Amino acid sequence: MPELFEKFYLTVFLPALFAVLFGLTPPVTGQSEYDVVAGNFLKYLNSDKKVISTQLIEANRLTPTLSKVPIAYLASLEDGGYILISASKSLTPIKAYSLVSDFETLPEAYKEFLFSEMEYNIRALTSKSRTTQGTASGEAKERWDFLLTFVTRRTTPSYTPDTHLLTTRWNQGIPFNKFLPEIDGQKVLAGCVNVAMAQIMTYHRYPQRGNGVAVYDWNDQRLKAVLFRPYHWENMPDILDGIQAEYMEDEVALLIRDIGVVNHTAFGLDNSGAAINSNALIENFGYSNTLASMDNQDTTSFFETLKTEIDAERPVLLSFPGHMTVADGYSSDQTGRKVHVNMGWGGHYDDYYFLDDTVQAGDYIFDPAQGLTIYYNIKPCSGPDCSLNLESEDSITGLEIGGKFDYEKDADRYDVYLKGETTIAGNRGYQNQAFYVSIYDSSHSMLVSSADPISKNLPPGRYTIRLSLYGEAGGFYLYDDEHTEYTVSIATENMTDAEKEAIDASLDVAPVISSSLRDILLNSSNTEPHKILIDARDENGDPLDIAVINTNRDAVETALAENILTLTPVADAEGTASRVIVTAAANNKSTEKAFVVMVSDEDIGFGKEFVLQGVFENQDDFNTHKVILDGQCTITGYNGYSNQAFYSSVMHTDENFIVLPADSDINYTFTTLTYLLGASLKQNPGGTGSYYPYESGVNDRYRLTICCPDADDSTESIAGILDIDLTGTSIQQYTLNVSKSGPGHGDVVSFPAGINCGSCCSGLFYQGTQVVIVATPDAGCVFSGWSGCECSGT
Predict the structure, then answer these.
(1) Per residue in 355-384, pLDDT tens?
(2) Statement to judge: residues 619 and 691 lie in one domain
(3) In terms of domains, do 355 and 431 share one?
(4) Quick check: bond before 380 cis, omega within 30?
């Protein structure tokens, strides 16, 4: 009789090999800090799930001769889900979690990698330098303190009139549109709908993680947003005025880009139009399926609903004719119709307005008689109001689908293989189909959406069929309790198992790292470490692991917490450099990006395009920034006004002007040298003449965007100009070979990706990389162990 065998693994730290051992202790009894962290983390996620058990995980997998050490606590959740908590307060508390799937359902290689990495980090704490520990532990301590003392922000709604709920003051231009496309070299506007949605989502600090992939075509471009990624709300400031760290700006700009793609925005330079995609808000971002809309034809109901929502501390989307805003408060005025509106213009004209009268916000006039619309019940879902794909009564057998619309906006998605001439027809008890069938291809593009039977010739592939009462273009059918069940019949050409396997293999793509990760120069005298947001996503939604390799720890120290890479130059390391390699791995596929960190004793900007920021301290302040300029360059200034309301200039390092101060773009061709960029409120710094008045806290922050498209910003060129030694940027790679022997059969794969036997039994890995090798015997076969190396493991 064939026996059932588990997967087997081996952990490798190149160039040496180590055995792997770990264990689960009995469940933890009694209330511990780990229980508090798990419970408060669920509250932070607005989840009503409960922890049903907690287990301590101990390991000596890296060096079996040592005693086991606690590496993690695993909290199991009712009805599925888990939270994996670090055993040390010097490390980020939450290592991984799911509110749906149990820990045991994770890919075996990924679980083993998690355990190996956690033990490595625990043991490494005793050998890390003080500087590295100080950076990492300080951030970890803040996260532990937050979760140990977390109090639900809005347990009991208690709105106070004459206040407003939102604290954000976001806008549509720089830097909110940083990751949006361009028209004629200019960034498009973010769009009022997208900014309004982003501000409400930030208010709720939800979701913690998105779901799905959004795609559409705009201006002959394919725009895609992979939403399988976490949202770090704690890194999104209320105001972006030029002094916040770039990684915080990036967090906000990435959120707005995701929403912009989800809403299929018609981006433009003067305006970016979009409609609220309520389906996406529910399905992709996990908001309540009770979301609804209402116009102001019945003014009594309109204002009562507004007040009820705000009393419940739920901001609502408020659509004026041509402009989307957020209504987030009301006045104690006796009429009850004076409502606080966040205009989405960076705080400008955020005020209380009578919504039954003409609204004037600066030069903009909105007439409520032309129609107002609110979108309300915008809240994180909980329990039955959450979108769940394929409930218990939804199923597919072969090419026959049967299911039920459980609520008004229920949408069910089925993956099917289609080929050639294909027809799809549905029925829910009416003479007509009376619901929408949409077909998406494997690139997530919608091919067709119709409430009538579909006939289409399709290339062989795996497609997604979406069924809903609500169409993609805005049409809908009323929900009818007596006609909730549906059937769908599909006719298509036969496809062999081999064809299906080939299609599946082609769709299992590697993760993507979208961050540009350009070479940078760090000033060793700066006390604040430099932080970079790593935007890595996996289109298949597989668990994603990000790792960092640093080739020269004598130049810079690296620490990775969540998606933030921290770089700290080592004291007295001027003139040295390191190569930093970022890898992202998921389901035995990986990708990487590398950049060079150079260390100097001063701040110097360089590149084809880069940004400098500063603050005017007084009327006479004249700031200078050292830069490397090469070839034709355009230097653009911005401090919050429609025009450049300050003066920029260029000087040689001896402070002789090359380009005199001007309050407009600088266009000039430069010899490759180091220069000084000047910024001042006076045209004649230190003297008399034209000036822009200084007012502390009011547009006193500025940014300079430098664009030199033909500049030679290669590592070698910049290092040569600055006399930087690049010796430390090299790194050795090792080939790890695996061979299978014996009469049995099975697979061997590595994590990170590289080895996949039988297709590839060797992989090239960087020195210091932790590699987990998993051996999986075929049914009826037995894995007998490892040989040919000083290692052990089963």
Answers:
(1) 999 999 999 999 999 999 999 999 999 888
(2) yes
(3) no
(4) no
